[in-house]
């Protein structure tokens, strides 16, 4: 999910604006592929059953994913994390465990590293693939909510600026292979959180931060909307009869964040400056490789149905292994097969 372009470009003259408005309306009625139980798209139980009975996993018919000649992350990625607000050590361990498992090749099958292999199928103009390696970089704790408990899309950039310009232990500035991950605790509201997004990625503006740095924000939804952003480990009230699944690391909010973090990192790698891999004609509202597969975690997935998952002996549900942990991570679009794919696919 990328942030829209509102306010970034000069406003075009009225006739152009009209054409653009009509165009974006026409584009918006094209099929939406990903799924989350957003409050504005309530569906009833009959629909759920229907959706679960057909093979879905994204439909290639309408998807025209294209390369727009921009850079992708081919060099080793270093993830610098900003922990905004109140984070427990146990929560940090789950998230770090996931990030480091992306490059851990010896995890049990189906593995997070194999999930990343689909991301690696994307290349730049020179034919170089997305990197295999993602390192954990430096951490910055913003324990005292430097910019308050309610952040806008723009103030997020100010939080990043504070982290890279701090007088003690600033985060390193690495525009080429650094990836800045801002994680907000469950008591922080972020613009459009829960209503439209669970996370997004973009790049910082030199006018605000001083550099163009690819970044992603993901929020802990535990107190605000677990039924949306931590689905299926929590279920919204308007889906009666649906039981939440047991989360694999014992923290509904954080286990739900993992898939959103994975989503944003996959898209940052393939579209860091929003001019590389995406579908759709409007670069302000591109549909990226994880948007296409949101809500799909296994074979047969689509709509509210997650697809075939695995159940641990402890009753927890997951679809991949990473290091010693288990995670539930959405699939991403495979450009060779032209459908959503993951390491736990049954038909491979
Ligand atoms: C639920 O779906 C069925 C079948 O599509 C439809 O007839 C019914 O009106 C729907 N109910 C609501 C509350 O939307
Ligand atoms: C990238 O990471 C790999 C694996 O850790 C390492 O062997 C290699 O030296 C790194 N390359 C650079 C340019 O840092
Ligand atoms: C690099 O991308 C190409 C094109 O998708 C693919 O054929 C190749 O297998 C990829 N290489 C790696 C190492 O993933």
TrEMBL record:
It is found in: Secreted, Extracellular space, Apoplast. The keyword Signal applies. InterPro entries: EXORDIUM-like. Its main location: secreted. Residues 1-34 form the signal peptide. The keyword Ribosomal protein does not apply. Keywords: Apoplast, Secreted, Signal. It comes from the Eukaryota. One of its GO terms (cellular component) is apoplast. Belongs to the EXORDIUM family. This is Protein EXORDIUM-like 3.
């Amino acid at each position: 999910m990328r942030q829209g372009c509102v306010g970034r470009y000069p406003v075009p003259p009225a006739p152009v604006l009209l054409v653009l408005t009509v165009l974006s309306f026409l584009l918006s009625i094209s099929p939406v592929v990903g799924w989350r139980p957003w409050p504005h798209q309530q569906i009833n139980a009959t629909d759920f059953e229907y959706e679960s009975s057909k093979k879905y996993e994204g439909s290639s018919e309408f998807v025209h994913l294209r390369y727009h000649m921009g850079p992708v992350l081919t060099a080793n990625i270093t993830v610098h994390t900003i922990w905004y607000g109140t984070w427990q050590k146990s929560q940090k361990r789950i998230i770090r465990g996931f990030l480091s498992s992306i490059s851990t090749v010896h995890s049990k099958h189906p593995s997070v590293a194999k999930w990343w292999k689909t991301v690696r199928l994307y290349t730049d103009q020179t034919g170089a693939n997305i990197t295999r390696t993602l390192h954990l970089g430096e951490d910055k704790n913003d324990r005292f909510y430097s910019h308050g408990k309610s952040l806008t899309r723009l103030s997020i950039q100010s939080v990043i600026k504070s982290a890279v310009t701090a007088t003690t232990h600033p985060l390193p500035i690495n525009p080429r292979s650094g990836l800045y991950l801002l994680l907000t605790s469950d008591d922080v509201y972020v613009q459009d959180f829960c209503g439209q997004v669970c996370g997004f990625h973009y790049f910082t503006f030199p006018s605000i931060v001083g550099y163009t740095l690819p970044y992603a924000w993901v929020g802990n939804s535990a107190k605000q909307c677990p039924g949306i952003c931590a689905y299926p480990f929590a279920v919204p009230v308007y889906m009666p009869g649906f039981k939440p699944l047991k989360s694999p690391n014992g923290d509904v909010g954080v286990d739900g964040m993992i898939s959103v973090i994975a989503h944003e990192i996959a898209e940052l790698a393939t579209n860091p400056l929003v001019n590389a891999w995406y579908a759709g004609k409007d670069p302000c509202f591109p549909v990226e490789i994880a948007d296409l597969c949101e809500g799909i975690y296994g074979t047969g997935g689509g709509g509210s149905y997650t697809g075939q998952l695995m159940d641990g002996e402890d009753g927890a549900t997951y679809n991949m292994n990473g290091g010693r942990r288990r995670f539930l991570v959405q699939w991403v679009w495979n450009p060779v097969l032209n459908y959503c794919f993951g390491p736990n696919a049954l038909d491979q």
